[in-house]
Write a structure and sequence with these properties.
This protein is mainly α. It has 27 helices and no strands. Helix 4 packs parallel to helix 6 and helix 11 packs parallel to helix 14. The longest helix is centred in the middle third of the chain and has 23 residues. The termini are far apart.
């Protein structure tokens, strides 16, 4: 019976077997269909000649042996025939054939053969959902080439990568359009197949690059948010794995606004954030290198979204992910810059939206304490460093922060005999306001309407309030702010003698740092070499800032106090006017600063609760003072 099924119309019994495979496509299709049908029975009953033909089919599409051009043509014809006969394929009778199909790597297929093979996969996926999971898994497995040596793609795979990724994504989109269950199953498969922390860089980059290719108009609504969330999760995991020991800890006598990169070894003509600079900073750290490569992929994806008019929708997804996965990560150093870059691509809408989003978190009592402390650090750093943010947006956010601070001060009057809180959110907000003005005060003064709004803010009331924020905020920020504010005559409207005394007392070393408030600045200068090109054009380095005392700025830079002066962090000094106790008020936060700060040493407030020894100094290479010249 099997022999009869293998014979075509007009085929001679003794005809050479090879001729069968080189007949017309129609004859080949009929032959493959007959073989598959003849195999659909108990193996003990299958005619031996049919079994021989069946295993020949399997051998033809098998990739384990090198094939000649004739063999490749034969494989192409066989794959076409299998595509036409998918209804005849059964897992019970054609197990070896299916195993061979699902183990194929399309990276080794010629272009035309690849198209035919992917057509077979999309048809198999639609057959009563029998092979849907296997088809999706096979496609996801091909996000990366089969062999990666020495952390690099094989040379032959590099020029093919973009085309292969495109074809994989198109196949997955076609399956998702055809099979309603496919997107949900694909999410689960991608989740299980995501690169792990210790996978090599080439595999990570290739996988994420192909995965983000699915985040388009056709599939974005179905799985886009999940895909982006998985990528951000991987970025964050790599980010926090870059330990402080990986970064040089030296130059502890440079202030927060000083430049620290001029002394890096390397060619004077080379960008200080080039390969040599990064090697000095990270010592070849693998996590930093992997993160750098992935940041390039994510930035390219965001740029593509902007070019296709898809960025606003992508930004909304990204902001939600940032809120859930990044905001509260206290050791994040670079992953947050995806928000910075996304905002830079749409400075009119996304840029201000991110600032408002962060400010809302700061000012809402309903938000959890750690999120509020982190958000105020983010908004201060963001407004200071984002060159694309308008002065009008800066002033609008400052007004909201100052109004909240005034409301907080007023609230303290009504507390009566209630326990006095530690006021961390208040001090952090005051510090953020001063930090922003260190960077943006001069530019605000260029606009009369904005200058008027700024001068109407009650800085005198805040800075002379009994809570005394000048004695708690970082000394470098306090001194720089007071100097610029004095030069701009920001305090001329206030007659309070205490404020005048503060300004006139040599810009006062006694101010700033009593009960030192330690914060991190999440948008400090970016230190990853490959992806730096996406951040640098829109990043404000301190060396670029025009201060109100621009003529003598260079001389004054040498006088700024050290951010990490060990004497300021020993917790030995106390302020009788500012008591810090635990209180349940939503604005009165008692949280360890190391829960939200990338600063590696113990903070003042953390020392109070743990009675720990004085902490380590913050590495000069990563602290807010890092300001490479552009």
């Amino acid at each position: 019976m099997g022999a009869d099924l293998l014979r075509y119309d007009g085929m001679e019994e003794e005809e050479d077997e090879v001729e069968v495979w080189h007949r017309s496509d129609l004859a080949a299709f009929r032959h493959v269909e007959n073989v598959l049908q003849a195999m659909r029975m108990d193996p003990n009953l299958v005619d031996p000649s049919v079994m021989t033909q069946y295993y020949k089919l399997v051998q033809i599409i098998d990739q384990t042996k090198r094939k000649s051009s004739d063999d490749e043509a034969l494989r192409l014809t066989t794959l076409k025939a299998l595509s036409e006969a998918v209804s005849k394929i059964d897992i019970m009778y054609h197990h070896s054939l299916l195993n061979t199909i699902f183990s194929i790597s399309i990276w080794h297929l010629q272009r035309h053969t690849m198209d035919v093979f992917l057509d077979l996969i999309t048809r198999l996926a639609a057959v009563a959902d029998q092979y849907l999971r296997e088809c999706l898994q096979m496609l996801v497995n091909n996000f990366t080439p089969p062999f990666i040596v020495k952390n690099e793609l094989p040379p032959w795979a590099v020029p093919r990568k973009k085309d292969i990724h495109f074809r994989l994504c198109e196949s997955l989109k076609t399956i998702s359009d055809t099979v309603p269950l496919a997107p949900m199953m694909l999410r689960d498969i991608i989740d299980r197949s995501m690169p792990k922390l210790f996978d090599n860089k080439a595999k990570m980059v290739s996988f994420v690059e192909c995965m983000l290719g699915l985040d388009t108009e056709r599939m974005g609504d179905l799985i886009g948010a999940v895909l982006l969330a998985k990528v951000v999760e991987l970025l964050t995991e790599l980010d926090v794995s870059i330990t402080w020991e990986d970064i040089l800890q030296e130059e502890h006598n440079i202030g927060i606004f000083d430049m620290e990169f001029e002394d890096l070894d390397g060619d004077d003509d080379e960008d200080v954030l080039g390969q040599a600079g990064t090697k000095v900073l990270f010592g070849g750290n693998q996590c930093a290198d992997k993160l750098d490569g992935l940041m390039v992929v994510v930035c390219e994806h965001l740029k593509s979204c902007a070019e296709r008019g898809y960025l606003p929708k992508e930004y909304d997804i990204l902001q939600t992910i940032f809120r859930a996965s990044v905001l509260r990560v206290h050791r994040s150093k670079f992953a947050q810059f995806i928000m910075f870059y996304a905002c830079s691509l749409d400075p009119e809408i996304c840029g201000p939206q991110f600032a408002v989003f962060l400010t809302d978190i700061v000012t809402k009592k309903e938000e959890d304490p750690i999120s509020r402390m982190s958000a105020v650090s983010y908004v201060g750093s963001y407004l200071s460093r984002a060159r694309f943010i308008s002065a009008n947006t800066v002033v609008a956010v400052l007004e909201r922060l100052v109004v909240w601070c005034v409301g907080y001060c007023d609230h303290q009057k009504s507390r009566g005999t209630a326990a006095i809180p530690n006021h961390q959110i208040f001090y952090a907000t005051c510090q953020a306001v001063m930090y922003v003005l260190c960077f943006r005060l001069r530019s605000i003064l260029d606009y009369e309407n904005l200058k008027s709004r700024l001068f109407n803010m009650p800085f005198g009331f805040l800075l002379t309030h009994p809570l005394e924020p000048l004695k708690v905020c970082l000394p470098s920020i306090v001194n720089e702010f007071l100097r610029q504010a004095k030069d701009a005559k920001l305090f001329n409207a206030f007659k309070d003698s205490a404020l005048n005394d503060a300004i006139e007392s040599d810009l006062s070393r006694t101010f700033g740092g009593i009960g030192r408030l330690d914060m991190f600045f999440p948008f400090d200068p970016y230190l990853l070499k490959e992806s730096d090109r996406y951040m640098r054009p829109n990043f404000e380095f301190w060396s670029m800032v025009k201060t109100t005392y621009i003529d003598d700025k260079e001389d004054y830079d040498d006088e700024l106090e050290d951010l990490d002066d060990p004497g300021m962090d020993d917790g030995s000094s106390d302020d009788d006017n500012v008591e810090r106790d635990i209180n349940n008020d939503p604005d009165d936060l008692e949280i360890p600063m190391d829960k939200m700060s990338i600063t590696p040493y113990d903070s003042y407030f953390h020392q109070l609760s743990t009675e720990s020894h004085a902490g380590r100094s913050m590495p000069a290479r990563i602290r807010p003072s890092v300001s490479p010249p552009s």
